[in-house]
């Protein structure tokens, strides 16, 4: 997932057609497929199923924003550590 400031702007899936769901995808033959953000993902769409594209992307965005917050806190703590 790619972010600009605190906004999710896109991302990629790692894909390997020769590997199973439980196998390592980081191997020759792997490629990336873009996440298609056709709609804004700033809030879940309650009229659609949880697995609908906008809701999946919203969940990815929540995780990305939490990771950004954690990284910012770690950075701040590191700056103030003697």
Structural commentary:
- This protein has 82 residues and is α+β, with helices and mostly antiparallel strands.
- The chain has one domain.
- It has one helix at residues 53-79; strands at residues 2-4, 7-10, 12-15, 31-34.
- The strands form two sheets. The chain has a two-stranded antiparallel sheet with strand order 1-2.
- A hairpin with a 2-residue loop joins strand 1 and strand 2.
- The model has no long low-confidence stretch (mean pLDDT 87).
Labels describing this entry:
82 residues; alpha+beta; two-stranded antiparallel sheet; 18% strand
Summarize the structure.
This protein is α+β, with helices and mostly antiparallel strands. The protein has one helix at 53-79, and strands at 2-4, 7-10, 12-15, 31-34. The protein has one domain (2-79).
Round the mean pLDDT to the nearest integer and report it: 87
From the spread of the alpha carbons, the general shape counts as flat
- Order of helical and strand elements: EEEEH
Count of extended strands: 4
Read across the widest sheet, the strand sequence of neighbours is 1-2
Low-confidence stretches: none
Radius of gyration: 16 Å
Domain count: the total is: 1
């Amino acid at each position: 997932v790619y972010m600009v400031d605190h906004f999710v702007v896109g991302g990629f899936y790692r894909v390997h057609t020769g590997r199973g769901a439980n196998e390592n995808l980081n191997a020759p033959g792997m490629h990336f497929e873009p996440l298609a953000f056709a709609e804004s993902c700033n809030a879940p769409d309650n009229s659609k199923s949880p697995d609908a594209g906008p809701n999946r992307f919203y969940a990815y965005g929540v995780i990305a924003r939490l990771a950004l917050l954690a990284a910012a806190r770690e950075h701040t703590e590191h700056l103030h550590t003697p």
